[in-house]
Write a structure and sequence with these properties.
This protein is of the alpha/beta class. The protein has a single domain, classed as 3-Layer(aba) Sandwich (Rossmann fold). Strands 1, 2, 3, 4, 5, 6, 7, 8, 9, 10 and 11 form an eleven-stranded mixed beta sheet that branches. It starts with 14 loop residues before the first strand and ends in an 11-residue tail after the last helix.
Length: 311
């Protein structure tokens, strides 16, 4: 293992990122908004990023599927999205995601702040590293506990009567874009998973590598297809419940942003690479070193400049 110089990031001017999922394609309440186009080593993000302010913190909003919902869960450019957020100084991410429920007590129109996930995807790049640079981050607790508590506390205070915010639970991330079969749904229930979605695992893994704290507000739209007393999930059902949840989700995120601004909480995610970089920097190919400099720079310094005439 390569010894990396410990760093304590300065969070005084760090920004908050908000990733909007299905049904949340814009962030209300942002002031002084401007759109930013970011080029990344991993291609273009899903959309331009919208930078504005809520209370005393700058917020960067990105619609993960694009503002016109142009990307399937498999096609979302996750690495470009997370790289772009980090390049703009984001160190905390609030993700808003639509999910199906796998347990009776987690009802449609409830919300849940997960603390674990299980990955069932198989078509996505899951790391910024490789191609001559090995890093193994710790992912035992993939969601930031501090940021998750802020989301849950705010959500608890705002949930209408008859609806509940659930603290903790396992998010099963499936590939999509089709919904589950009944057999799959029953299998995931037997594993003890609370909700099922198609995006969060990938984002949470990459956010950890990029040393950004990550938490999710999961909006429950349906009972997936396991529940005999409820109709199988349809797009119409999901959209109807998404609309019902969207206003509340916006309010929760706005208030949570204010608390992040006041607390500027430190997270173990902010130094996730401290003991994770395995390859000596001098052994890393120059192009790989340059591509990952955004993350490795605090430990290794600037990457060597590209030679003149190099492609």
């Amino acid at each position: 293992m390569v010894s990396a110089t410990p760093t304590t990031p300065d969070l005084s001017n760090a920004r908050l990122g908000v990733l909007g999922g299905s049904g949340l394609y814009a962030m209300e309440g942002l002031e002084d908004v401007r759109e930013i186009v970011v080029d990344t080593p991993y291609g273009s993000p899903s959309d331009s990023l919208r930078l504005g302010r809520i209370d005393d913190i700058e917020v960067v909003f990105l619609a993960r599927h694009g503002r016109h919902h142009s990307f399937t869960p498999s096609d979302v450019p996750y690495r470009a999205n997370l790289w772009a957020l980090r390049s703009l100084g984001v160190r905390w991410i609030l993700s808003v995601s639509a999910v199906g429920s796998l347990q009776e007590e987690v009802r449609p129109l409830d919300m849940l702040v997960p603390d674990q996930f299980i990955d069932r995807t198989h078509q996505r790049p899951l790391s910024f590293f490789g191609e001559g640079l090995v890093a193994h981050v710790t992912a035992a607790d993939p969601y930031c506990g501090v940021l998750s508590r802020i989301l849950a506390d705010v959500g608890d205070s705002l949930m209408p009567e008859g609806r509940r915010l659930h603290r903790g639970g396992t998010y099963l991330c499936m590939e999509g874009p089709a919904f589950s079969t009944r057999a799959e749904s029953q299998l995931y229930r037997s594993w003890g998973c609370e909700v099922i979605g198609m995006t969060n695992h990938t984002e949470a893994r990459l956010a950890r590598e990029a040393e950004m704290a990550y938490a999710t507000l999961a909006m429950v739209t349906d009972y997936d297809c396991w529940h005999d007393d409820h109709a199988s999930v349809t797009v119409e059902m999901v959209i109807e419940n998404l609309k019902a949840n969207a206003t509340l989700a916006q309010e929760i995120v706005r208030m949570a942003a204010g608390r992040v601004a006041a607390q500027r909480p430190r997270s173990s995610a902010h130094h996730a690479l401290r003991h994770a970089l395995m390859t000596p920097p001098e052994a890393v190919p120059a192009e790989t070193r340059r591509r990952t400099e955004l993350f490795t720079g605090p430990y290794w310094g600037a990457a060597p400049a590209a030679e003149a005439g190099a492609s």
